Write the structure tokens for this entry.
Amino acid sequence: MEQPKDGLILFCKKDCATCTMIVPVMKKLSAGNQALTIFTQDDPGFPEGLSGVIDDTSLEQSYHFQIETVPTLIRLENGQEIGRTVGWDREEWRTMTGIKSLGEGLPPFRPGCGAKNVEPGIVEELAVRFGGIHLASRRIASPPLEDEMETCFAHGWTDGLPVVPPTEVRVVRMLEGTTRSPDEGVGIIPPNQMACTVEKAAINAVMAGCKPEYLPVVLAAVEAACLDEFCLHGLLATTYFSGPVVIVNGPVVKAIGMNSGGNALGQGNRANATIGRALQLIVRNVGGGRPGEIDRAALGNPGKYTFCFAEDEPGSPWEPLSVERGFPEETSTVTLFAGDGVQAVVDQLSRTPESLARSFALCLRSVAHPKIPMAADAVLVVSPEHGNIFRQAGWTKARLKEELDHLLHIPGLELVRGAQGIAEGIPEAMKDITLPKFRPGGLNLVHAGGTAGKFSAIIGGWVASGPRGSQLVTKEIRS
Amino acid sequence: MKPTTILLDPTAEKSPERRERIQRPTDLKGITIGLLNISKPRGDIFLDEVERQLIEQGLNVRRFQKPTFARVAPLELKQEIKSQCEVVIEALAD
């Protein structure tokens, strides 16, 4: 409908004690010589017996006038708002209407009630219905006889599991999670080198099952994945197992309820599960990276559905990964690692850091292959019970890394082709040198896991590591 | 029956640009053939043999190598190949 251009307009609802209290005021205004339009939000018959009452149960006018409280009285002049008062404030109403005796006998002040157009879940509906937000994406119709989830499968948008259908309302709601504009660029996604906007990321985050407050983490993960050092294109195309592993640090972990404790690398936590999945869906849908096409993985790994967890900072004997990588402790970050599956490290008997470090080293040797040095990086996830052994002995993270580096220098003779009856290995010419298992900086430690269980975990990395392949990357999470 | 639901397209809304292949040469004589080793193991052995056979036929051959198979070829390398060769044979896998 056309909006009034001049005079007073009043928004009210029957289900508001203040609105019902001021019905005599409305009647007095209506009987006067000022133009008055009353919009009623819930009951078109309220207030009874007055002319000029307009049914706004669709909330269109309430939305356009951005009403937050009823009653709200607005004065318009030539279509411009020149005055507004919220709730019942007798003096303000008298000033705005110019009627000195208005509200005689009523209390001088009574707060209003919440307007219906700002009730939870309504705002986004109204934004879509009344054009409050512009979304650039192509609209795809899911026909009446087809389940929306099947429409998503039919279009090839899913990772094999059902996705949440990305309706306009859901996407608008998702975009509430960031202050960034929907058309802002986030990164160029391989293999098709397509621009990913905040809007496209939000659509895929909806499909992954994210809550709006996870969106900043998803956006930071996309930004990190697009850094040249991460080499997403090669990681996607490789025949190797790996995919992006997302490690989250900082206050955001607690704020959005991520799991860094029991089963941190497993299922069951919505934020962990959906943030990692959103990144993978963006690679699939925006970048066009699909298994069997550009994704040439021989076997892949289950983490390619989603692999995201948080570091347990409060329980850690060491500084967080983000701090180690140069960010302040109060800064939330995502760190991306080109990793594959989880390999268990069981050591229930070590009680000294020296013994436990030796266990770690022995298990770490098997990343990719025990006879292949300096190929894959690794992340060692140290659990609380193992972490305690280092804490009690006063071992810093640097001290443990130094010890592991020492233990993981391997004589070439053990690694050469043919050694131990295994053809795989390094060239014979290298038999007389000692080689580190990991390139410098190639082994990283994080702390996570439940408080019971003397187990840690190795996440092996892509065999193309470092400048020739993928390196660990960290990005700050912005709102 | 549910009403028609409107969904937002999560893709980049473009198929990869389909480019026409350039005209194939009818004869390799007189043109330069690039042999690109992408740095996968044993690519050099394969290309050595290809090179030997091409030279036996009196053809011009130049060798190139990517720094790493894991990354796309650097722009400079692509430009170098393009400026020196008319066709390229790539040793793709190990």
